[in-house]
Design goal:
This protein is of the alpha+beta class. The chain has 2 helices and 8 strands. The protein folds into 2 domains: 30 residues; 112 residues, Lipocalin, CATH 2.40.128. Helix content is 22%, strand content 42%. The protein has an 8-stranded antiparallel barrel with strand order 1-2-3-4-5-6-7-8.
Length: 152
Amino acid sequence: MIPLLFKRLVLCIGLLSLAATATISREANQDQPGTVWTAINPDAFPDDVFTWHMGPGGSYREDGRDASSGLSIQPTLSGHWSREGARMVLRQDDLPYVFDGVVLGNLYGGTLYFGGRAVSRFGAVKGEQAPERCDAGAGVALLAAGIALTKP
């Protein structure tokens, strides 16, 4: 009786593990070319909203606008993004900005670095609508995802 229960328990754990792996793989592939993220950087750029257009080959374009007027605040910038599990990193090509954070569903949050120094937290959501706020707890999300808090 006990060996049969043990075999069933092992089978159930195995099936749950496969389902979790499939979900993580599906989420890791969600940032395909054409995905749009809209972000705020409340500590460094509190009045601005940034939109990232994810492109093929890990490239992205960034547009920035004033949150109140909607007017552009910068020329379109470009960079490259990479994703490993829940962690996603965006690096600008011509400026030393790096966005290092964690993706949880349709949310992306973490730390903005400039020249290797943390300058702001950031929060982003998928789509064209900017998030209303960006909580200060991104470090907790990084730790929960098993990501070491180190400089990019």
